[in-house]
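Quick note —
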Amino acid sequence: MLKFEELRIFLDEKADQYNCPDFIENDPIQIPHRFSLKQDIEIAGFLAATISWGNRKAIIKSAEKMLEIMGNSPFDFVMNHSEKDLQEIQAKSIHRTFNGEDFVYFIKQFNRIYTENESLEKLFEINESETNFIHAIERFRSQFLGTEKHRSHKHVSSPYKNSSTKRIIMFLRWMVRKDRRGVDFGIWGNINPRYLSIPLDVHTGNISRKLGLISRTQNDWKTVEELDQVIRKFDDKDPAKYDFALFGLGVTKEIL
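Predicted structure written out below.
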C-alpha cells in the first residue's frame, strides 16, 4: 500500500492526466458542453447526469435524443413548450427506466423553478455550518420534486436515505469546479468547490478500496463521507479533482 504522500502525488498526477478536454469526448459532460447559455448548460447537464447509468455511449445517445426533442434549446423549450409538445413526449422511451413521463415531469419542474429563479445554483447553496452537500441536496429535492408523489422521484436520489447520489454529485462537480482546464464549467460562483465530494459508483468505489482510501463495502452516502475525509486531506480546496484520477485508474486498470 502506498504511503500518504506517495498516494497524494500519484493521484495528483492521474487527476492532471485526465482533467483535460480529451476527457469530454466520451463522457456525458459533452452534452452540456454544446451550450453557452447558463440555463441551457444547467438543464442539459442535469438531464444528462440524471440518466448517467449504464453504458456511456448509450447515455450520450439518450441525452442527444432529449436535446433533439427540445429543439436543441433546452431553456427555451422548458419555458415556452406547448401542452401538445408534452403530450407527444409522454409516450416516448428515453433511457432505460427514465421514460417520456419522467421527462415531462422534469420539464414541468424546471419551468416552475426557472420562473422563480435565474439559476439552479440558488437551490444548492450551502449554509454556513455545513461541510458537504447532504442538506443542500435534500433542500434541492424538496423544491424540485414538490410534495406530490410521482414515479419520477426515484430518479433524484436522497442522501438522507443513504444513497451515494452519484449523479447529482457529478452534476455538482460540473457546475461548481473552476480550474480553467476546459472540462468542468465552474459557472456557479457562489458555491465553494471545497464542499464537493467524489461521485461514488461501482468503479470509483472499487478503485478507492484497492488504494486503501475507504474500508466500507457499500457504495452509499456513508462511504461518500468516508472518502471525503481522505481526499480532503490530499486537497481541501478542490477535493473533487480526484474524481478524474479514480475514473482514469478505472479505465486503465493499471492498479489491478
